[in-house]
Amino acid sequence: MRLKKSKTTFLPGIVIPSLLFIVGTSVLSVIFPSQTEHYLSIVKNSLFQNFNWLYVLVVTLFVFFLLFLFISKYGNIKLGPNDAKPEFSFFSWVSMLFAAGMGIGLMYFSVAEPISHYADASLGNLSVQQRAKDAQLYTFFHWGIHAWAIYGVVGLSLAYFTYRYRLPLSLRSCFYPILKDKINGRAGDIVDMFALCSTFFGITTTLGFGVMQLCAGLVHIGLLPEVNFFYQVIIVLVIMAISILSATSGVTKGVKYLSQLNIIAAVLLLLFVLLCGPTTFLFGSLSEGIGYYINAFFSLTFNTHAYEPQRQEWFFNWTILYWAWWISWSPYVGLFIAKISKGRTIREFIGAVLLIPTLFNFLWMTFFGNSAIWLDQHEAQGNISAMVNQADLLLFKFFEYFPLSDIVSIFSLFIIFIFFVTSADSGIYVMNNISSNNAEHSPKWQLSFWGGMLAIVSLILLNAGGLQSLQTMTLITALPFAIIMLLFCYSLIRGLLIDAQYYDRPLSHATNSWSGALWKDRLESIVSYHEKKDINQHLFKIVKPALEELKLAFEEHGIIAKVESSLEQAPYYVEIKIQHENMADFIYGVRNESKTVSDYLRNEDNAPDISEKNTYVPHTYFGDNRAGYDIQYFTKNEMISDVLKHYERFMALSAEQRNELFLGQNLRELPE
């Protein structure tokens, strides 16, 4: 069916190829689930085994790249105009980025991952205490700064180019310093297609596997008689109905309020586990665990277990899989984080994105994971760790050792449900954003379309057993996107350098002495762009007479100066030189230099008429190789004054013994 332009903001060049790929992959996963999973797993395992070092390297670069920006002068740059204000309160902002980022994963892995590491025999023949400490350490590593650095790189790049450069909120915008206006062509469409498919696959697989956990929990507490497809259909339909309603109400309403509800409920559950669990042990293990993580940070960050073949399988199935999963989710999470971060400074963005969720994850994983390990050792007699292969039920089995276990399990199911809704509604919003290139006022049916697609595909794959194939496909796409993210970092650095130079650039040196006396002449010079011969005339009529007059004045004080020039052949210049025997020569020169004029200025109607690509300016240079500047606006007397300023500086520096290294260079011979 052909959609009228007036009724949709979808871009066919993005949406149609993406839907074809999504449907094609889903059909293969449904018709040939085992074969598709088999061949995709071969590809995934090959990538993990042969390029695990690359995953480690790129994630490490992302961490240190963001830390560099955090402490650098670029941290003061705002994500938006210099006077931009944040759209959301700090609490709302953190709630939304956290709920979209990994909220549902915390519920699923809060007990499952620490217990898995604790019970894994491949981690070595260690004492019970050391196994518990290592379980906490590896969980911190997988859910800490490294994970959020991946999201942070994409989110920061998007927010910067969207709000600072006023480009669309689209992954293609992150390539602007490299591709310029070509981002609006086919190359930009391909990047957005990649992001759209990655987001769809990530949310679909999470929705499918999460529904299995919800069903298992409802059966465990007796609210459902059994796990079957009918109940899974009902759960998916309810989740997607609420998600669509939330997404169509906008980020400032549904998504924000659900995220706030989510974080409040999660904190209440966290406090319950803390107060009813081994409280003193949990506080002590939190402090020790953070210290252990800090001490092991660099060894964990760079470790590929190349000398420990017995650890390779664990390394691939946990660390590398996590890095691939976070990377594959980063287009979705990054887009959403960028959407809600306008008005924040880069330092504020990095600090909040890296530290706040990381610290909360440490609290969460310590209180849940260490409580589970402590209970397994003291009360459960190993029954919790014995269920390590039943991750869907582990959380609810864990709550059996707490008071009011049924009520707490129901409350935890409510949190899981809301986490799913917030992940889905923000995902729907992001997919519509990508498919319309950030168009404003998209019709609500488009949001409903993506919600319906998520529900239909996840249910079909859930029924046919094809979810694992889709998850594997998502993990395979992570490596090429990691390379794309490195290009994001490069583009961001280029953009920040230009940004800093633009706002830090002072007024022209030649304008310091301006008054209103010659304003018409000044205006004439500003709006005029010169050819090479014009600047040679300036050197001949203004610069050379000024330097020759100054030469005579120096001689009156017993100082011999020379004026040299070349105005007939390149290089074109005029300079005054005072030679010394015991210290460096004083040189002040002006040369004819070419400058490239931007296409933007040349093509602007309401600007001076500039026909040539290059213009020419008189540019100073000095004997000590300091950077020069344009002096085209100087009068003859202003030229003389400028030379004297530099001569005064030269004499003041020469009077200081500590500057001998620079000023005594005439006495040193260069080595042969």
Automatic annotation (TrEMBL):
Provide an example Pfam family for this protein. Answer: BCCT
How does the entry describe its membrane topology?
Multi-pass membrane protein
List localization entries: Cell membrane
What residues form the membrane-spanning segments? 9-32, 52-70, 90-111, 140-163, 190-223, 229-251, 263-294, 314-337, 349-367, 407-426, 447-467, 473-493
Keywords attached to this entry: Cell membrane, Membrane, Transmembrane, Transmembrane helix, Transport
Family recorded in the similarity comment: Belongs to the BCCT transporter (TC 2.A.15) family.
Q: What is this protein called?
A: BCCT family transporter
Write down the species: Sphingobacterium bambusae
**Lineage of the species this protein comes from:** Bacteria, Pseudomonadati, Bacteroidota, Sphingobacteriia, Sphingobacteriales
